[in-house]
Every structure is written in C-alpha cells, then in structure tokens.
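Progress note, sequence design subtask.
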C-alpha cells in the first residue's frame, strides 16, 4: 500500500558511482542502452507511486559519494539506494559512511556481479546493505525502490 501522499513526502537518496554517467554508450551489450537520465526518470516514477521524493545523484569521485551519504544521514533520509559501480569492490570509505546510516540501504547493480569476473564478486557495500538487487538491468533500481518503500511502510 502506498504511503499517504497527504503526508510530507519522505526522501530517498539514489546514489550512483563512477562511469554510470556513461550508461547507454559504455559497453551497451553489458549495461544496455538506457541512459542515466532514463534511470533517474524510472526512479522518480517508482518513488512517486509510493509517495516518496528522490535525491538522485552520480559522481566519479569517492569523497563526493561519502559526502552525499553523510548528507542523507544528517537530513534523516527515509532510505538510500546505491549503485557504487567500481567502488563496490574497493571502497572502505563508502562502507564506513553507509554504516552510519540508520535508514535502510539497498545496493543495486545493473549486471549480476556474481557471474562476472572474480574480483567483482566481493562487495564491501553489501556489508552495510539491507538487501542487494543485481542482474535486472536498470529495472533493478525500481525493484530496489519498491523494496525500500515496503521496508519504510513496515517501519511506520
């Protein structure tokens, strides 16, 4: 059941890591032809169905992503969806920032990282995530927001 739209909309952050700004052109056989703008539209449409507002961001810089996680925490975001991309397997800084979140964190990957190269199969971010969605293409973002909305509703 959707969140009552009469209430002040709760905000979820959707954060995207390095190279996701190249969606649609970078390795389209692997990542598809949809652009990051289309991913943002999908996220906003899905969130709106649940009465949620979205802060949608992308950065190629680890520190900026850490800053946004800290901002989400400080602003009491209802939840956070993150596709850490290349930082999945390398960033203890992003993990440490996510561990400060009281709100639920959902990790998203466009591809199934468990069927890819061995080095992509170990996610630091998963240690802070309530759930992981991978392998559904960009549709995984919508699934993550649907799941996050269910968690938020159950908490309310």
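Output:
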């Amino acid at each position: 059941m959707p969140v009552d739209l009469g209430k002040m909309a709760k905000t979820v952050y959707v954060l995207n890591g390095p190279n996701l700004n190249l969606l649609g052109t970078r390795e389209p056989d692997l990542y598809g032809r949809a652009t990051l703008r289309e991913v943002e539209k999908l996220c906003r449409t899905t969130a709106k169905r649940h009465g949620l507002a979205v802060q949608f961001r992308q950065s190629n810089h680890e520190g900026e992503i850490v800053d946004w996680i800290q901002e989400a925490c400080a602003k009491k975001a209802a939840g956070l969806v993150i596709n850490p991309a290349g930082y999945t397997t390398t960033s203890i800084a992003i993990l440490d920032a996510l561990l400060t979140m009281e709100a639920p964190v959902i990790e998203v990957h466009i591809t199934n990282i468990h069927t890819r190269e061995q080095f992509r199969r170990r996610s630091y971010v998963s240690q802070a995530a309530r759930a992981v969605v991978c392998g559904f293409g960009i549709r995984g973002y919508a699934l993550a927001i649907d799941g996050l909305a269910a968690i938020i509703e159950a908490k309310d």
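Residues 90 and 122 are 9 Å apart (CA to CA). Work on this subtask will continue into the next period as scheduled.
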